[in-house]
Amino acid sequence: MVDFSLDLMSDAEDSITEVELNIMSAAKTYLLIR
User: Fold this and answer.
1) Considering just the CA atoms, what is the radius of gyration of the chain in Å?
2) What is the DSSP string of the chain?
3) How far apart are CA 1 and CA 16, in angstroms?
4) What are 13-19's contacts with CB under 8 Å, separation 24+?
5) Distances (CA, A) of 33 to 20, 21, 25, 27
6) 11 to 4, 15, 23, 24, 32: CA distances (angstroms)
7) CA distance 4 to 25
8) What is the tens place of the pLDDT at every residue in 1-11?
9) Does the predicted TM-score (pTM) go above 0.70?
């Protein structure tokens, strides 16, 4: 049970960092285009 929740937490963190990286790259390209 504990291991399962830990796995879910790590997966959530991975997806969050992925989204943050996408946002960062999008912001950089937006600033460059602007």
Assistant:
1) 15
2) -HHHHHHHHHHHHHHHHHHHHHHHHHHHHHHHH-
3) 23
4) none
5) 20, 18, 12, 10
6) 11, 6, 19, 20, 32
7) 32
8) 456 666 766 67
9) no
